[in-house]
Amino acid sequence: MSTQMATDLSKSAITENTMVGFIGAGRMAQAMAKGFISSGLVRAGNITASDHNQQCLQILQDLGAKTTRENQEVVTKSDLVVLAVKPHIVKPVLREVAPIVKSDTLFVSIAAGVTIESIESNLPVGTRVVRVMPNTPALVSAGASVLTKGTTASDTDSKLVKALLSSIGICEEGSESYLDAVTGLSGSGPAYAFVAIEAMADGGVKQGLPRDLALKLAAQTLLGAAKMVLETGKHPGQLKDEVCSPGGTTIAAIASLEKSGFRGALIDAVEVATLRAHALGATK
């Protein structure tokens, strides 16, 4: 979604006085804050973040946000609070801030595997919660996120969160039952792509290309292929067929990938990551 579309979507939900807080100021919080600010959806001075890592806080300070080491201060100052901490820290943080949570505060969790039920049970009854699974390309405004509303969150809440997340990539709404698979696919997926880029570049180097050129070509090739899928609306299989000339180089390469189990390896990777996300959630 374009920045303009995100802005249009959010007009009824986000105002110039909307206060956004981050509990946890790591890379994903930094990416989200940067996107919210650069899109014009949230003023930098309306963002407050807490963390014990001063380097993380400094990055947000450089964006113009306010920072603190106190989680309760974030909750007190914010209309929307993003839980951007590691999954095992979510419950202690929620128990810490629960006594001061206002009835109109919206909580957005990006903690992998932590269920809406778990979050809601550690906050005052009726607190609105939206759970989101984003991914690290949000750092370059190319993220892929899926959100799920909690039991008391409204359509307006989901529209607000979708507008904010659309400023750092694409955002879709889906059932919470999808989120472990979303974690396995798009949450962990950038790592699969990084391995593919590295391996393709290694192949280029093996064939005599300079390392920097091979890496640039590999990365741009995956970027271009992804854009073709998203922008043409064609099935990736059709796009693959369009590259494969009869008896040509590409079909020979595809045959080699098939013999090596390329498809199966990626399918298995998504499955393993999904099962791991489910296991993490079961321990929260």
Characterize the structure shown.
With 284 residues, the chain is α/β, with parallel strands linked by helices. Helices cover 54% and strands 13% of the residues. It contains 13 helices and eight strands. It has helices spanning 3-10, 27-38, 54-63, 71-77, 90-97, 116-121, 155-166, 179-187, 189-206, 211-232, 236-243, 249-259, 262-282, and strands spanning 20-23, 47-50, 66-68, 80-83, 106-109, 128-133, 143-149, 169-173. It has an eight-stranded mixed sheet with strand order 3-2-1-4-5-6-7-8, sandwiched between helices. Strand 4 (80-83), helix 5 and strand 5 (106-109) form a beta-alpha-beta unit. Helix 1 (3-10) runs antiparallel to helix 7 (155-166) and helix 2 (27-38) packs parallel to helix 3.
Major sheet strand order: 3-2-1-4-5-6-7-8
Order of H and E elements:
HEHEHEHEHEHEEHEHHHHHH
Sheet with most strands: 8 strands, mixed
- Low-confidence segments: 1-12
Short description:
With 284 residues, the protein is of the alpha/beta class. It is 54% helix and 13% strand.
